[in-house]
UniProtKB/TrEMBL annotation:
<feature type="transmembrane region" description="Helical">
    <location>
        <begin position="226"/>
        <end position="244"/>
    </location>
</feature>
<feature type="transmembrane region" description="Helical">
    <location>
        <begin position="59"/>
        <end position="76"/>
    </location>
</feature>
<protein>
    <submittedName>
        <fullName>Uncharacterized protein</fullName>
    </submittedName>
</protein>
<feature type="transmembrane region" description="Helical">
    <location>
        <begin position="202"/>
        <end position="219"/>
    </location>
</feature>
<feature type="transmembrane region" description="Helical">
    <location>
        <begin position="149"/>
        <end position="182"/>
    </location>
</feature>
<feature type="transmembrane region" description="Helical">
    <location>
        <begin position="116"/>
        <end position="137"/>
    </location>
</feature>
<feature type="transmembrane region" description="Helical">
    <location>
        <begin position="309"/>
        <end position="328"/>
    </location>
</feature>
<feature type="transmembrane region" description="Helical">
    <location>
        <begin position="83"/>
        <end position="104"/>
    </location>
</feature>
<keyword id="KW-0472">Membrane</keyword>
<feature type="transmembrane region" description="Helical">
    <location>
        <begin position="264"/>
        <end position="289"/>
    </location>
</feature>
<keyword id="KW-0812">Transmembrane</keyword>
<keyword id="KW-1133">Transmembrane helix</keyword>
Length: 331
C-alpha cells in the first residue's frame, strides 16, 4: 500500500509538470499565451517563450512553471493536509488557466492582436490526472520528512533563472527579438544548444528539480537527485564545450558570461539536498539564528543551527551574485 502511495505521489509531479514538458517538445504551444498562436510562417523566427505584457498571462506562466515545484514541496511534508493543499494548488492553477483562456486571452506576443479563444489543452489534459493521483495518495499520509526545504527552494529559484530573465521580449514593430536568433544552424551541436536553451527558457530545469524532490519524498533513494543534478549540468557543460571549440574571434563574451551559472548552482543544491538525509533547515530557525548573532549570542550556539546559517548565507550570497550577473550581457 505504501509503495503504491509513493508511486502516486511521485506520478503527481510529472503530471503537474505536463504542460511545461509538452510545450518544451512543441506540443500544445498554440494554446498557451506565452507562445505565438500562429502555426504558419511568421516574421519572427523565434517561437518563444515570450515575456508577456498582460498580467493574467504572465501570472499563468508563473503558475504553470512553479506548480510542480509547489506540489513536490508539499509532498516533502508528507501529511494528508499538505497533500490536499497540493490538490487545491493544482485546481487553482487549472481554474485560473481556464479563466485566462476564455475571458482574458490577451494579445498575441507576435502580432499584438487579440488572441483567439483556445482551450488550454495541456492544462486540461494533465492537471486532472495530477489532482486524482494526489487525492488517492492522501489516503496514506507519510511521516514528515525534513529533507531541506530551503535547499530545494533555492534550487528551484536558480533553475527558473532563464525563465525569469531570458525569455524573448519583442515589440510589434520589430521583426526579430535579437540578431542572435537569425543565425542559421550549422551543426548538430548548434541544434542541441538551441534546443536546450529553449528548454531552459521554458522552464524544464524547474521540472527536473521538482522530480528530484518528488523522488526524495517518495523515499526512493538519492539517485533521482543525482540524475537531476547531472541533467542540470548538461547545458553549462555544453556552454563550456562550445566556448572552447569556437575561434577566439567568434565569441564576444567572456567565459564567465558564456556559461549558465544558475544551472550550476541549481545542480549543487539538488545534489546537496538529495545526499543530506537529515538536513533540518527552516526559515524560522535561520531568522532566530540571525537574531541571536546580532544580539551577540554566538557562544553556546547549537552546531546544527550554525549549519543552518551557513547554508542560508551561501544561498543568499549566490542569489545576490546571480541577480547582479543578470544585468550583464549573457547568453
Amino acid at each position: 500500500m505504501q509503495g503504491s502511495a509513493a508511486a502516486l505521489r511521485f506520478g503527481a509531479v510529472p503530471a503537474a509538470a505536463g504542460p511545461v514538458i509538452l510545450t518544451t517538445f512543441g506540443v500544445g504551444r498554440q494554446s498557451v499565451g506565452w507562445f505565438c498562436s500562429a502555426t504558419g510562417p511568421a516574421p519572427y523566427p523565434v517561437e518563444g517563450p515570450y515575456a508577456l505584457e498582460n498580467v493574467p498571462g504572465e501570472l499563468l506562466f508563473w503558475g504553470v512553471l512553479l506548480l510542480p515545484a509547489v506540489v513536490a514541496g508539499l509532498l516533502l511534508r508528507g501529511s494528508r493536509r499538505a497533500t490536499l493543499t497540493a490538490v487545491a494548488a493544482v485546481g487553482t492553477v487549472l481554474a485560473f488557466g481556464l479563466v485566462t483562456a476564455f475571458l482574458l486571452p490577451g494579445p498575441d506576443p507576435c502580432t499584438g492582436q487579440e488572441r483567439a479563444v483556445v482551450p488550454p489543452w495541456p492544462l486540461i489534459a494533465c492537471y486532472p490526472v495530477a489532482a486524482g493521483a494526489l487525492l488517492l495518495a492522501a489516503r496514506s499520509p507519510l511521516h514528515r520528512r525534513p529533507y531541506g526545504i530551503v535547499l530545494w527552494a533555492g534550487a528551484v529559484s536558480a533553475a527558473a533563472w532563464a525563465a525569469m530573465f531570458h525569455r524573448c521580449i519583442v515589440t510589434y514593430d520589430m521583426l526579430v527579438a535579437d540578431a542572435f536568433y537569425l543565425e542559421p544552424s550549422e551543426s548538430f551541436w548548434d541544434d542541441l544548444a538551441w534546443g536546450l536553451g529553449e528548454a531552459d527558457r521554458i522552464g524544464l530545469p524547474v521540472v527536473l528539480v521538482a522530480l528530484a524532490a518528488a523522488a526524495r519524498a517518495a523515499a526512493w533513494g538519492r539517485w533521482g537527485g543525482t540524475a537531476a543534478a547531472a541533467s542540470l549540468l548538461l547545458l553549462p557543460l555544453l556552454d563550456v564545450a562550445m566556448y572552447v571549440g569556437q575561434d577566439s574571434g567568434d565569441f564576444e563574451l567572456s567565459f564567465a558570461d558564456s556559461v549558465r551559472w544558475p544551472l550550476v548552482v541549481a545542480a549543487v543544491l539538488v545534489a546537496w539536498a538529495a545526499w543530506s538525509p537529515w538536513v533540518r533547515i527552516s526559515w524560522a530557525g535561520t531568522v532566530r539564528l540571525a537574531r541571536s548573532m546580532i544580539r551577540g549570542q554566538w557562544k553556546g550556539m547549537v552546531p546544527g543551527r550554525a549549519k543552518d546559517l551557513a547554508v542560508a548565507v551561501v544561498i543568499v550570497a549566490g542569489g545576490v551574485w546571480l541577480i547582479a550577473s543578470s544585468f550583464t550581457p549573457t547568453r
